[in-house]
Amino acid sequence: MDVTDQREQTLEGGTKSCHFSILLIEKDKALVKMLQQFLRIHGYKVDWTTDIKQIKQAAQRNRYDLVLLDIDFNERVGLQLIPLLQHFQPDAPLVTMTGHNPKEIEQQVRAFRVLYHFIKPFPLLELSQIIERIVTRNKTDHSVLPPIKKATYAT
Asked: What is the pTM of this model?
């Protein structure tokens, strides 16, 4: 467990104040490291944890602009967390990730109306584009984004 709080990131020798905050819930530490590095390089604040108690505390205490959720962590506990996250973070779009995608999981995720559902591995460029859409929306207004289709990529 590592709920981080880095409000400022150093980019190309300078300091950039970060106002876009992401809650990352992912069990694969190698993927976490890659995602944190990628997101922080782009100036985003990233909090990461897999501890259920700390997930609930973070969702209750902090305001996030995006939640990235591995639905497979801890025997699919991620699916059970979706209502809690949507309750405490009603304005934060939810993006789910899974290493495998049985039809029943996809149907459950769609029923929760998440913004996007990734099948791992996925291109970071696509994640970046989704985040940019959210950032742009947050700067202009708070209207609902049109649904984005799920991403599926062969490994």
From this structure: 0.78
